[in-house]
């Protein structure tokens, strides 16, 4: 069908512009997710918050992200990838800006939950959308490159925090998070709807027209069957129960567990990273600068991961990067000098974000087109529960047991993730989305 023709289109300027256009809103998702970590010490002091409540405030956006990931993934399978993406961008940027007007911890939690509804939906839709345009042999590296825009968002967040917060306060910092609403214009005017989605929904004529247009832009001409010769597919309703059917349950269990562990480990680190450095004796400006400096290590982490998943495969790359993340986390807890802290925190950023790139690839590949948004969104949504639990648990562990125990628990979570990849992960390197979805029972 049309997916086979789409796979034959060689990489061209069109695909790279698509990566950039999707990468921009994803970059700003990262910025708006992570900016709370930079103001958390100030909010904790201003509102006299105990550790557990400060951790819950930091992770409160994940309540909304749980709703958004599950809900928007399902919605995107019915109203389309493009329209859903536009709505999620509007949601998270507007409520990030409104967070500047929070007057106490409860109002801030409300704003962060509403922000999370947009953030949680935007993440899976970005990856589902791009995966449906990129040929199988390039899909893994392209999706990791998309995930690398997260690093740019984190760098942007820490840079703005370093420049804005000391001079203008945390309220102005949140207002900067509303500026990316302009990216909805790029999505609306520059991006087409997914061809695989159009075909799945029976809009074959639109899909053929778009395929021809992309083919011309890529220097390929296709002799496609007429619309009359192609039977529209009958779209069936997708349920969470189907994700747990015999055909998909191993994939679903793997992806849900992996998302939960990754979200717990990553956000337990990044949402408390300034607090961790303060516990090690670093003043706030120095902690912010260290966070900014070490965040640059994320970029080579993504690029090496993008290369390795097409050479070694998804499973060994993910297991290796998660193991190294666990080792680096223990090293961070044991750091005694500034050099040791910078090296260990850089290693965490390198390996953890490289691992995230692989997870993002995996979860777009496990399900057929008709349920890809639902499957990816459900896994992402389940993982967001760990975003609520993790920072809250960290706040408790820090108060009760100190830094080393707290980070040792986080390191153990990453090791369990490596085992999950080895035992339950399936290798998808070099296979089309249709070939992967036709495999049964694994």
3D architecture notes:
- By secondary structure, the protein is mostly helical.
- The protein has a single domain, classed as Growth Hormone, Chain: A, CATH 1.20.1250.20.
- 79% of the residues lie in helices and 0% in strands.
- The protein contains 22 helices and no strands.
- It has helices spanning 2-8, 13-46, 51-59, 61-79, 81-98, 105-131, 136-147, 149-168, 170-176, 183-190, 195-200, 204-217, 240-243, 249-270, 273-279, 284-295, 298-311, 314-334, 338-365, 369-400, 403-424, 433-438.
- Helix 2 (13-46) packs antiparallel against helix 10 and helix 4 (61-79) packs parallel to helix 6 (105-131).
- The longest helix is centred in the N-terminal third of the chain and has 34 residues, at 13-46.
- It is globular.
- The model is unreliable at 225-229 (pLDDT under 50).
